[in-house]
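Thread: "does anyone have the structure for this chain?"

Original post by V.I.:
We have the sequence but no experimental structure in hand. Need at least a predicted one for the grant figures.
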Amino acid sequence: MSEKSFEARFCREHGLSPDRYEKTVFKRALYPHARWLYALIRLVSPDHFVADLDLVRNVAKLTRLRDFNTEVQEFVHHPANTGAARRTFNLRVSTKRLRRLVKAALHGDSKLTAEEIQSLPPFPVNVTERHEADHEKQSLLRA
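Reply from O.Q.:
Generated one for you, tokens below.
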């Protein structure tokens, strides 16, 4: 495992041993409703998440974010990535969630959790400027 790989950085920054990488990233990248149904899905169809786990394993080796799209294309065309449960009901890994995890680790923003990254505003907001703008609006409305 290269020290510059996503797996190495993710494990180091989250205090995980490398053997916990796959399960942790897999669970964080699942759609929320798929997390809830995970045990049931595994019981009914033990091979349901084969394509997802292959994606998580392949992404582990990445050292550059630009290579992520190649892995996603392989995931899209994976023989096990078929069926309504996966395609229509999203009972699978979210590539958008996984991309956020990879980007955070490879670009140094990984001190944030996956949930914190998802809740970030699309544009940086200076709290002081925001407060002043709100105060100005209230003053104008009173006048």
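V.I.: this helps a lot. The two ends are 64 Å apart (CA to CA).
O.Q.: and Confidence is low (pLDDT under 50) at residues 123-129.
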